[in-house]
Amino acid sequence: MRSHEIDYKIVGEDIQIVEIELDPRETVIAEAGTMLYMEDGIQFETKMGDGSQPTGGFLGKLMQVGSRLVTGESLFMTHFTNHGYTRSKVAFAAPYPGTVIPIDLAQLPGNALIAQRDSFLCAALGTGISMHFNRNLGSGFFGGEGFILQKLQGDGLAFVHAGGTVIEKTLRNETLRVDTGCVVAFEPSVHFDVQRAGGLRSMIFGGEGIFLATLQGSGRVWIQSMPISKLVQALAPYGGNKGKEGGSLLGNLLED
């Protein structure tokens, strides 16, 4: 199925949203709960599957749902269609602060992108979203990230969300080592692995973690500076802070 041709605009600097303008009868698919606002004419419908293979029947939809269960995503996807007679906009926001990355899948080798399982935000109808297993079991057992990934495939626009600032790097038969969890996406021509970070002393006292993600080959890689796991870890010490709030009226009420 050929993807719909959608127009878009990225809004914001540090906490971005994507605003998509749809012609009549055009559709964009998105993760459940990511819609920020929509104009007159836009209607949404929750469906099983991404709609990239409308003739796949119940069995095909069941396989898509099963793969989304394994990746930890919602069973359903939301389809937003412009049923009006003029162009209308719908906007999407990610569940935590960060950057929205527009990807033209038609410009990638094999029209495909490999992404972390929780990074997909939305895409033009016709984009296939499937589970992608990393061949190296060590990525799942030791790295905590990267064993189960998502594969986005099609000839249209897809939007991926990342935490913090995003860096795009192009590898030319090179090797890049990255903190596990900071890899957002990469082209299929890049090999992804998780390897031990240096010697025993560095692993224990270096503060960079026991394992690092290793990207090898030729192709583009997208890296995020603040994945949600790091954000939660950074905010954890403040969860029990009672400081001024503990002595305030609101704090006393909460304690009661």
Give an overview of the whole structure:
With 256 residues, the chain is α+β, with helices and mostly antiparallel strands. It has a single domain (7-235), classed as Mitochondrial biogenesis AIM24 (Double-stranded beta-helix, 4-Layer Sandwich). It has 6 helices and 17 strands. Strands 9, 11, 12, 14, 15, 16 and 17 form a 7-stranded antiparallel β-sheet that branches. It has a 6-stranded antiparallel β-sheet with strand order 5-6-3-10-13-8. Strands 1-2-7-4 form a 4-stranded antiparallel β-sheet, with no helix packed on it. Strand 1 (7-11) and strand 2 form a beta hairpin. The longest helix has 14 residues, at 57-70. The radius of gyration is 20 Å and the shape is globular. The termini are far apart. The model is unreliable at 139-144 and 242-250 (pLDDT under 50).
The proportion of residues in beta strands is 35-45%
- Overall mean pLDDT score? 80
Count structural domains: 1
Tell me, what is the CATH class? Alpha Beta
CATH architecture classification name = 4-Layer Sandwich
Biggest sheet features? 7 strands, antiparallel
CATH third-tier fold name: Double-stranded beta-helix
N→C terminal distance: 58 Å
Overall radius of gyration: 20 Å
What's the number of extended β-strand segments? 17
From the spread of the alpha carbons, the general shape counts as globular
Secondary structure class reads alpha+beta
Helix content: 10-25%
Count of DSSP H/I helices: 6
| Helix/strand order, N-terminal first | EEEEEHEEEEEEHEEEEEHEHHH
